[in-house]
Fold this protein.
Amino acid sequence: MEKKSHFIKREFPQREVPAVLLLLLLVIILLLNGLLYLYLNNFYGSSGRADMDPSLCPFGYFKLGPMKNCSPWLSCEAINKEVRKLKCVGEGAVKKVFLSEWKENKVVLSQLTSAELQEDFLHGLKMLKALQSKHVVRLLGYCEQQFTILTEYHPLGSLRGLNETLHMPKYKGLNTWHRRFMLAIDYMSIIRFLHSSPLGTLVMCDSNDLDKVLSQYLLTSDFHILVNDLDALPLVNRSAGILVKCGHRELRGEFVAPEQRWPYGEEVPFDDDLMPPYDEKTDIWKIPEVSNFFLGHVEGSDIVRLHLFDIHAACKKEDPAERPSAQEVLDTYRKVLTLLIREAAMPGTREML
């Protein structure tokens, strides 16, 4: 008799994820979202995002280093008696800058370089006084008669040296897409602040190339950005028909906005009287190049650039009216940061569910 083979078909029960494990996973996700919310709330609220810092002194006063109480801005007499110059650390078209000392604190003393530029110097002082906030370098005193301004000292200097600073052993750990993107958000917060300042819509005119832009800002020791040079901040008021022109010379190159360039071709010589004025959207045109500098070439920076592609393309619209506002760009930057942090904190969560 032929022996039949018997095959037993075994059916394995489908493994189900225990309800307790799913509940635990959901709790972890909620906790991570809660931590992310607290982090971003702290980041936006206490890292230079708020226009006014509650720790700042009242108008006309300052607090420096370990000082517990606010002191009045130093007068001409106090600056002459109590401030000691140490060395010259820079010179621009309007000011000569000295590293100085006041009551064992390093400070910066700026003095007018040429009598012809008194108006620019005094305009910068006016802006510095009126715009004191988390976004602006701290004013410690001034003397209009002697064309002297005293401000807080930041040892890391201007943003020109950012890449060199991030390659120093002390700061190498900060050379990440996250920290660099936070600097870009700091920068956007300042532009948004200037475009909606207590004085009205202000245009950052000292920005004809990337190097010039970077020289206008300081890097603080806790890696935030402050605007430092406010000598060229003209006011735009569309309702009153007030537009601006950044200087009286012809501007060239792709960095400046199209409306800042001579519109009548090479055959017509440049004439400032014929040059049309423009508004704050010139600052928006320059954002992609500045942000590209901040992001650098570190792991993850290209992912950030990809997420910012659409908003940066909008910044480059030929028609200024079609470009986004500084607030819209800032909002987009914040949304991208939130998205990227969430993805980094919870990789693979969707597959687990």
